[in-house]
Each structure stands twice: as C-alpha cells, then as structure tokens.
Amino acid sequence: MRIRERLEQLEKEQLSVYASLSSETRGRDVWEEPCDIRPDYQRDRDRILHSKSFRRLKHKTQVFLAPEGDHYRTRLTHTLEVSQIARTIAKSLRLNEDLTEAIALGHDLGHTPFGHSGEEVLNQICPRGFAHYQQSVRIVEKLEKNGSGLNLTWEVRDGILNHRTSGSPSTLEGAVVRLSDKIAYINHDIDDAIRARLFQEEDLPGEYTQVLGKSVRERLDLMVHDIIRNSLDRPQILMSPEVEKAMKDLREWMFAHVYQSNIPKAEEGKAQQLIVFLYEYYCRYVDRLPQEYQKMMAEGETKERVVCDYIAGMSDSYAIDQFEELFVPKAWKV
Questions:
Q1: Long-range contacts of 288-294 (CB under 8 A, 24+ apart)
Q2: Which helix (H) or strand (E) holds 81?
Q3: Nearest 5°: CA angle at 216, between 212 and 222?
Q4: Rounded to whole angstroms, how far apart are CA atoms 82 and 84?
C-alpha cells in the first residue's frame, strides 16, 4: 500500500463520521493522477501555499492602510491566524485538518490592495461588480499559473467561496473556517485598534466582555472552546446562543468604532482614487498590461474583467508604485 493510501485509510479509521474524507472528494475539474504520498486536500493546501497570490498577501492591507510599525496585521498574517484557529477546532472535532487548512489559506486570495476600501471601489467601477470571495475562487480556477489555475478539489473551492458571513459551506471543515475567520478578525482587529490608540481594552462594552472575556487571549480561548463544546460529535458547527450573540454584537460595535473610524479610513479616499486612475488607464491602454492578461482577452475575456483581475491582484505597494510610474512626474537632469 502506498503512503497516500495508508493516510487515506487512517482518515477513515480516526476521523469523525462527519469529517470529509480525502478519498471521497468530488474531485477536480481536470482529472490528475493522484500523488503517491499526499492525499488530495493536502496537495491542495501545498498548491495554495506555493502560489504567487498567497505570497502577495504579505503586502496587502488588513484594516489599517500604510500603518507605521511592524506589528499591525496584514492580509497574510490574518490568513495564518485563521488557519491556526481553524486547525485547532478541526483537530479537536476530528475533522479533516488538511481540508480545513487549505480552505483557510485560500479564503482571502482574492482580496484587493487597500483592504475592503479597494474591494468597494472595484465593485463600483467594474461592470460585473467585484467580491473578494468570488475573486478568490477565480484565482484558483483561472488566474494562477498563467491562466491554468491550481485545479483544486471541489470541497476546497466550495469552502473558499462560502467563507463569507452569508455563505453556507457544504462541509463542516468549511463551516469551521467561516467561523474562524470572524473569530480571528474581530479579536486581532481589536488588538490592532488598541495598538493604534483608537481605544483601550477597558472601553469595550461590558455586556460583550462579560460574556467573551476581558482580553484578546481570553476571548480567543473562550470562542474556540465554545465551538468545540457545542459541535463535538454533531453534524453542525455551532456556538452557544449567548456567545454567538455577543460575538455578533461585538462585530457590529467594531464596524462602528474601528472599521468606519478616522484612522483606518484616513487614506481611504486617496487609495480608492488611485485604483480608479489605474483602472481607467489600463482600460484605455490594454496593450500595456502584462502578456498573460492580454492573452486572456485574446481568449474572449473582456478588457474590463481583465483589468479588474490585474488591479485586484496588486499588493498595496505595487499599486502605489504603478501609480507613481504612470502619473507622478519624474525629476530629470540635463
């Protein structure tokens, strides 16, 4: 028996009856010879980890645009924190850790430069609209590897697409990532907001902290334990009503006091205008797009779709560099 087959057998013997088994995946859009050592979900995780779009996350904004300091979250560190939380939950529930990690690592690949500010403006100016969770799937299905995509399994793509609040993942592993994403960004955005001196821990409403805890560490620990306690040996991923309500209410408080506050939004207008300029420029001069994007137009994609793909894939720093290259006058010498 080969290594992969032994690992698949271990999944059958050790995982929960509600776990997604690698040997029972609905498969890939394009059939491939199975790996001799890695089950399919592990293979998907590795493909995401080695992708260009994953590496670009290190220079994409989480909440605070261009913060001064090395300790604010980026889209990459957020993704790693989601993965860690999700794997802890999945392991405790005896779910498939490889599938969970693959979904977690891929869930935000489609995020734009400048965080949700970039997403909002692309949604306004692109004829078909824009949503990062749809773009994440487009990246793994189409844009990576110069147009051939990563050819991931159906379950990983389903989990990536449905990690949003209104999503409904088809696997429990996807449901774990969906909740882990919220747990991560609520708690770690609080940590960053305190670092930015938007407020202090003591300023958080007591009706939430009395339920969830009075520090980031306490809240993370309580939420993870609450999900495990309420989901163990059940066909659903659940939180207790009290904890779920407190988490949702705290999330709404964060939108009002952090995401819409002056500090993270201070440069938002400039960032959005920068994206508009880049979009209009490349729609006018499509011949100046990289070759792989021009190839997509030759294969039938509209220029608006391709330009949107190109800009969405940019890191914050690359978008700024492109803007300066195209629109900022340069000094010259005689």
A1: 292/146, 292/147
A2: helix 75-92
A3: 40
A4: 5
What are the angstrom distances between the C-alpha of 308 and each of 63, 303, 315? Answer: 21, 8, 14
Region 5-26: mean pLDDT is 98
Is the separation of the CB atoms in 81 and 65 below 8 Å? no
Helix (H, G, I), strand (E, B) or coil at 30: coil
Q: What is the pTM of this model?
A: 0.94
**CA angle, corner 207, sides to 185 and 182, nearest 5?**
15
Burial of 288 (0-12, 13-18, 19+ CB in 10 A): exposed
Gap between the Cα atoms of 317 and 262, Å rounded: 22
- Cα separation, 141 vs 18, in Å, equals 27
Tens of pLDDT along 48-77? Answer: 999 999 999 999 887 766 555 677 888 999
Of 141, 165, 35, 188, which Cα lies nearest the Cα of 98? Answer: 35
In this structure, are residues 77 and 87 in contact, taking their beta carbons and an 8 Å threshold? no
Q: How far is CA 121 from CA 14, 160, 274, in A?
A: 47, 22, 10
pLDDT at 223: 98
